[in-house]
Amino acid sequence: MTDPRKPNPARRSERSRRAILDAARELISELGYAKVSIESIAARAGVGKQTIYRWWPSKGAVIFDSFLALSEGEEGMRLPDTGDLEADLKTVMRATVAEFADPAFEAPIRALNMEIIGDPDLAALYRDKLARPVDEAKKARLRSGQQAGQLAADADLDLVLEVLYAPLHQRWLHRSGPLTQEYADALVETTLRAFSP
Amino acid sequence: MTDPRKPNPARRSERSRRAILDAARELISELGYAKVSIESIAARAGVGKQTIYRWWPSKGAVIFDSFLALSEGEEGMRLPDTGDLEADLKTVMRATVAEFADPAFEAPIRALNMEIIGDPDLAALYRDKLARPVDEAKKARLRSGQQAGQLAADADLDLVLEVLYAPLHQRWLHRSGPLTQEYADALVETTLRAFSP
Amino acid sequence: MTDPRKPNPARRSERSRRAILDAARELISELGYAKVSIESIAARAGVGKQTIYRWWPSKGAVIFDSFLALSEGEEGMRLPDTGDLEADLKTVMRATVAEFADPAFEAPIRALNMEIIGDPDLAALYRDKLARPVDEAKKARLRSGQQAGQLAADADLDLVLEVLYAPLHQRWLHRSGPLTQEYADALVETTLRAFSP
Amino acid sequence: MTDPRKPNPARRSERSRRAILDAARELISELGYAKVSIESIAARAGVGKQTIYRWWPSKGAVIFDSFLALSEGEEGMRLPDTGDLEADLKTVMRATVAEFADPAFEAPIRALNMEIIGDPDLAALYRDKLARPVDEAKKARLRSGQQAGQLAADADLDLVLEVLYAPLHQRWLHRSGPLTQEYADALVETTLRAFSP
DNA sequence: CCGTAAGCGAGACGGTACGTCCGGTCTTTAG
DNA sequence: CTAAAGACCGGACGTACCGTCTCGCTTACGG
Questions:
Q1: What is the structure's pLDDT at C93?
Q2: How far apart (Å, rounded) are the C-alpha atoms in residues B144 and B157?
Q3: Do A190 and B159 touch (CB under 8 A)?
Q4: Chain A partners of B34 at a C-beta cutoff of 8 Å?
Q5: Which residue, among D138, D145, D128, has the nearest Cα to D197 in the 3D structure?
Q6: Which residue in C156, C170, C175 is closest to D120 by CB distance?
Q7: Chains A and D, touching by 3 or more CB pairs within 8 angstroms
Q8: Start and end residues for every CATH 1.10.357.10 domain found in chain D
Q9: Which of B167, B173, B160 has the alpha carbon at shortest distance from B186?
Q10: Position with higher pLDDT, D193 vs C105
C-alpha cells in the first residue's frame, strides 16, 4: 500500500524535469545562489511552481539535483596512472585549481557548498552521490601508489585525501589565499612527505 | 563637511547595540541561520528595524558582529607552550574538536561560515578580525617549535596551519566523518611528520 | 458525423453522475458554497476531475443540477385547494417560511441563489426548470381563486406572485428581518387586499 | 491597553485607501466581480497586497467599502414631496428602474448583492450603512403620505417598502422579467391599493 | 538652559517570494 | 471509448520579510 499523498513517479514529465534543472543551473550562474527564487526557476523553465514543489522539498534540493544531472554520465571516472604518483596527483590537483578559477564553475559550486553546509540531509546526499564516486577514483590511484611503495602501506587513504584536498578547498571557500599551481604542488609534496613509507 | 546621510556614531545607543547582538546570537542558536530574520532580531531586541539598518548593511554583518563582540576580550590569546610541540598541538586540536561538538557553538559558527562563503566582504572582515589573531597565536607556537627544532626551519607556517586545521574544519562543515580526539591526534601527527626537520 | 470533442451521452456513467451530484449537495451543506471546489467534489465523489468537466461547464452548473436532481420526482406538483384562497396561501407561505428556517435547506438554496444572480445562463435555466413548474402550480391555485371571485378578474397573476413572494425572499436573502408565520400571514393579507375584486 | 495585533489607524495612509477603493470600483465595472482579485486591485492601486489585508478582512469588504465611499456625501437624502404620494413614488421607482438599466451601475451593485447574500456580517453592515439611510428617507415620505390620508394610518411602513421594492429588486436580481416604467407604475399602484386607508 | 537635531521604538508602506490551493487541460492505465 | 487517477501550466491566495519611510518621543549638544 503506497502513501497516496506521494506523487507517482511513473507519471513524471521528463521534459519538465530537464527544463527545471537546466533553468536552475542557468540562473545560478547568472545571478548567484541567493538571488535565485523558486518562482524564477519555474518561470524560466516554463513550468508551474507546483511541479517543482511536487518533486523537490527545497530550493537546495533542486540545485543539488541540477548538479547531479551534470555528472550523470561520468560513472567510470578514472585518474591518470603514469606510475609516478606525485606527478599524477599534481596533474589532478592543478586541474582542480583551474576549475575553481573558472567563474562559470565557481558560482554554482559555491552555491552547492552553502546548501550542503546548512542542510544535513543534502550533505549526506552530496557525499553519496557526488563526493564518494570521485573519492573512490582518487583512492584507487592512491592504492595503486601504495602498492608501488610510493605511500606508506598503513596510510589511511581517507585521511590522505583530506590532507591533500581540504586545505585547497578551504582556501577557495574562505578566499583566504591565492589558488596557484605552486600551491597545488606544495600540497601534493607535503602530503606525500607526511605519508611516505 | 560630513555626509548628512551617515549616522553619527557618537549618538549611538550602546543599549540597543548590545540588545541587537545578543538577540542575533540567541536566535541563531534557537532557529538556525536561515530562519532568523532582521524583523525577528529587532522584535527580540525590542528595537526598531531602522536601528539595525542604520548601523549594519546586512543580516550577515549583524551576525558577524555578534561574534566579534563575543571574542572582544580575548585580545592577548596565547597557546600553551610546554616545550613539547606535539603535545601542545594535540591539546589545542582536541579543544577545537570539543567546541565543534557543543551544539550551542555549532549553530552560530556554522551560520557564520555560510555567510562568509557567500560574501567576499564579510570573508575579508572575518580573516582580519577573527581568524588572523587566532592564527597568529598558533603561528607563534609553531615558530617556537621551529626554533626548538621540532619543525623544519623552512616550513611555511601558513601551510602548516592549513594542513593541520583544514581537514578538521572540512569534516565538520560537510559532516563527512566523526570528529574524535583520535582524529585530532592523527592530524597533529600527520602534520608534524610532513614538516619534520 | 458526430463532433469528436463532444462526449457521447450514451456512454455516460450513471453511477458517477449521481455520486457527483450527491457530493456537491453534501459539500455545500457542510462548507457553504464559496468553500466548495470542483476538486473537492471530485474527491468526495471518487471521480476524476475530467469526468466533471466533461459533463458540466461550471461549478454553478453542477450545483444547479444537484438541485434539479432533487426535484425530479415532483413533476405533478399541486397546491391545496380548500376553496378558501387566503387559508390555502397562508398554508403554503408558512411552509416556505419553515423551509427557509431549516439550516439543511438554507445553505444549498442560498448557494444556488448566488450562482443564479451572477450567471444569466444559469438564471434562465433556473426559471425554466425549477421556478416555472412551481410558479405554474401556484398560478393554477390563484386562477381557481380568481374564478371563485376571491381575486380581481384582471389581476396579473405573475405580479400577484411577485408581490406575495418577493418580500419574503428578499428578507431571507438579505437577512433583513425575521421570517415568522405572522409575517407570512401579513403578506398574504396584503396581497389579497391589493388584488381584491 | 490596545491589542498589539491590530494596526494603528492613526498611521493609515489616506492616499492608499483611496487608491484601493477606486481601483476596486474600476475593476468591478470592467471585469465583473468574480474576475477581480485582491492582487489585481493592489496592482491597479499601486499598493502592496499587505496594505489591503491590513485594513480589510476580505475581498467583499473592500468592495463594500468602495460603495460606502461613493455614498459618503449623500447624508441628507430626501425624496420629492409634491403632496401626491402616488406620483412621487412613481418618480422614485422609475429612477430605480433606470439605475438598474445602466450597465455602469449594474455590475457593481450586482457584485455587492452577491457578497451580501453570502456573508452575514457584510449584510448587517450593508443594512446599517447603506440601506437604512435610504429606507428612512423613503419611510419619511410614506409617513407624510400617511398623515395626508393617502395611506392607512396603521400601515407597517417597513412592510410597505418591502411590497413596493422587493418585486422590483427580485426581477432585477434573477432577471426574471423586464424592468419597465409600466412595471414600476404597476408596483406603486398595487402597493397603494394594498395599504389604502 | 533651552532649542534643535539626532537617534530611537514603532510600524505602515510598496514590493518580492513564499508554499498552498484550485482551475481547467492533458496523458496514462484499467476496464 | 469512458472513467479514475493525477501530473501539468497557470495564477490567486494569504503570509512573512525585505528595505524605506514617516511618526512622536527621548536625549544630549551647542549657541
A1: 95
A2: 11
A3: yes
A4: 118
A5: D145
A6: C175
A7: no
A8: 85-194
A9: B167
A10: D193
Whether D117 and chain C come into contact, CB under 8 Å, resolves to: yes
pLDDT at position B78 over 50: yes
* C166 CB within 8 Å of a chain D CB: yes
Residues in chain C: 197
**The pLDDT of residue A53 is above 90:** yes
Of B64, B129, B165, B173, which to mutate for an interface test with A (greatest number of A Cβ within 10 Å)? B173
Q: Give one DSSP letter per residue of D46-57, joined into a string.
A: T--HHHHHHH-S
Residues of each domain in chain A carrying CATH 1.10.10.60: 9-70
Helices (H), chain C: 14-31, 38-45, 49-55, 59-70, 85-101, 103-118, 120-126, 132-147, 157-174, 181-194
Whether B133 contacts chain A with CB within 8 A: no
Over the stretch A102-153, which tens digit does the pLDDT of each residue have? Answer: 887 887 888 889 888 988 888 998 898 889 989 999 999 999 999 999 999 9
**CB neighbourhood size of B17 (10 A):** 18
In order of C51, C133, D49, D176, the CA distances from C128 in angstroms are: 26, 8, 43, 10
Give me the architecture of the C85-194 domain, per CATH: Orthogonal Bundle (1.10)
The three three-digit cell numbers of residue A68, written as one number: 547531479
The CATH H-level (homologous superfamily) assignment of domain C9-70 is Homeodomain-like (1.10.10.60)
| D33 Cβ under 8 Å from any chain C Cβ | yes
Contacts of A166 in chain B (CB under 8 A): 166-167, 169-170
Is there a contact between D123 and C174 if contact means CB atoms under 8 Å apart? yes
Residue A120: list chain B partners with CB under 8 A. 175
> Can you give the pLDDT at residue B71?
75
C131–D contact, CB cutoff 8 A: yes
Contact C184, C94 (CB under 8 A): yes
Chain B residues touching residue A156 (CB < 8 angstroms): 186
Whether nucleic acid strand F comes within 7 Å of the CB of A18, the answer is no
Q: How far is C17 from chain D (nearest CA, A)?
A: 27
Cell numbers describing residue A111: 552555491
Question: Are B32 and A118 a contacting pair at CB < 8 A?
Answer: yes
Residues D89 and D85: their CA atoms lie apart, in Å, by 6
Residue D69: pLDDT band (50, 70, 90) is: confident
Q: Where in chain D is the domain with CATH 1.10.10.60?
A: 12-70
Picking from A123, A159, A170, the nearest residue to B166 by CB comes out as: A170
Instruction: Using the C1' atom of nucleotide F11, identify the protein residue whose alpha carbon is closest.
Output: A48
Q: What does the pLDDT look like over C57-94, one tens digit per residue?
A: 888 889 888 888 877 666 657 788 999 999 999 999 99
* Cα–Cα distance measured from residue C190 to residue D155, given in angstroms and rounded to the nearest whole number: 10
The domain made up of D12-70 is a member of CATH 1.10.10.60:
yes
Q: What is the mean pLDDT of chain A?
A: 90
C197/D29 Cα distance (integer angstroms): 46
At residue B34, the pLDDT reads 87
**Residue D23 — φ and ψ, nearest 5°?**
-60, -40
